[in-house]
Amino acid sequence: MDAGVEARLRAGDVTFGVDDAALLRAIAESGSVSAAASELGRSRSRALTRLETLESAFGSLVERRRGGSDGGGSRLTDTAHDLLARFDRLCAAVSGTAQASETVVEGTVTERTGELALVETAAGTVRALVDENAAVDSAVQVSIRADAVTLHAPDDAPAGGATSARNRFRGTVTGLDVGTAVASVTLDVGTASPLVALVTVESVERLALAVGDEVVASFKATATRATTV
Amino acid sequence: MDAGVEARLRAGDVTFGVDDAALLRAIAESGSVSAAASELGRSRSRALTRLETLESAFGSLVERRRGGSDGGGSRLTDTAHDLLARFDRLCAAVSGTAQASETVVEGTVTERTGELALVETAAGTVRALVDENAAVDSAVQVSIRADAVTLHAPDDAPAGGATSARNRFRGTVTGLDVGTAVASVTLDVGTASPLVALVTVESVERLALAVGDEVVASFKATATRATTV
DNA sequence: GTTCGTTGTTCCGACATAGATACAACGACT
DNA sequence: AGTCGTTGTATCTATGTCGGAACAACGAAC
């Protein structure tokens, strides 16, 4: 999980976070609540109380048994495994959200149809999903995830315009950060902040991208979010 | 913010969450820490202590003044406004993450290049971003956001294959949930869980989608995440 | 029967969080 | 000078969180 962001699953007043996940994982690994607590440098007392709280909200998580060849023990339920998988996916998503450069563009809502709105920005008109607060003339911030942006050569760009399901900005490559398999491309599209696209190295090579080139960036309306400021 | 998910910004040991955002907003609106605390049904004492903690981690957030025509008052700094905007965007992203149906497909890593890997799934081979834990033969869960999926008529589908920057699954429409401007399309692509795509109503109409139709779903490699299980 | 190592349960103390209270200080206004 | 309504500061109490300690209970192994 990214150091600057923290996510938790919530059920009623109870939340499930990193420490809880660590506890469940330590139990799965050691087969004992006592050993898990000890490994995590926490009290068994607290671990038991915490499990009680979590189980009241999320269902049975740990099956505990006393006596037997190993003195007793504990193991995770399927519910616990599901919960951990859910938490992992949330973390990956939030981590992706935090890490994926996100371009924020100021704009004004000019039209609204259900959950979609047209937003006028310095780079042109954008279609985006909006929350219930956004009405015509609302000032909004449009967030465009770098991993949602597809790059095209100007000649190959998909048809655009206000009626298209796909937004498109024409821009100039101002930066290229090429890694092993993934590259970050920075574009000047006329907005205060540059638009960043996270694409594969193959896309960069296929398009023969270099600083100074003209490209068209496209991104889905339903992957574009506008929040009121 | 979605009821099942909670997100916070973190700096060191200090986190900034919903309650903190509410406090800053109430201060901005009333122009006073006392009034804000009162409105939120909290103690002024606590509000002040909390502000102190937040400011130690995030920088100066509130400018306070005593005396004057209104007896004194407080206003937010630019830093506070930036922090709130950042928090709002995180919430919108997390909310989008939680709300956007996300299809999870089991798979096995067959090849890895830097941050990208090939994953064999029941629907075919997928390219996805992976975390550092994922090695060849690792079992992974591939998450595909509904808002990252583009639908195409079979004839118009982009070129596919293991070398393409774009993943593609061929499937059959099994469900259509059409709203005012946004639609959710469910596809049987051969995996245990159906693939869900969040698209505009216009896309549905342009493709003349109906249950039983064959379509091709495509989604970017860099927008596809695989987490180890 | 005894030992072992876990769980089940209860109780206690330390520290953190949160609210309540009170007085001093400030600057505009009367 | 007095009033107003905020802030600055300090102190106190109640509740929640967390860790620690202790004993009983369990079932396999010896």
TrEMBL record, chains A, B:
Annotated transmembrane regions: none
GO cellular component: plasma membrane
Intracellular or extracellular location(s): Cell membrane
Residue ranges of every copy of the Mop domain listed in the record: 162-228
InterPro entries found in the cross-reference section: LysR_HTH_N, Mo/tungstate-bd_C_term_dom, ModE, Molybdate_resp_trans_reg, Mop_domain, Transp-assoc_OB_typ1, WH-like_DNA-bd_sf, WH_DNA-bd_sf
A Pfam family: TOBE
Highest taxon above the source species: Archaea
GO terms under biological process: molybdate ion transport
This protein's UniProt keywords: Molybdenum, Repeat, Transport
Mode of membrane association: Peripheral membrane protein
Family the UniProt entry places it in: Belongs to the ModE family.
Protein name listed in UniProt: Molybdate transport system regulatory protein
Organism (species): Halogranum rubrum
Phylogenetic lineage: Archaea, Methanobacteriati, Methanobacteriota, Stenosarchaea group, Halobacteria
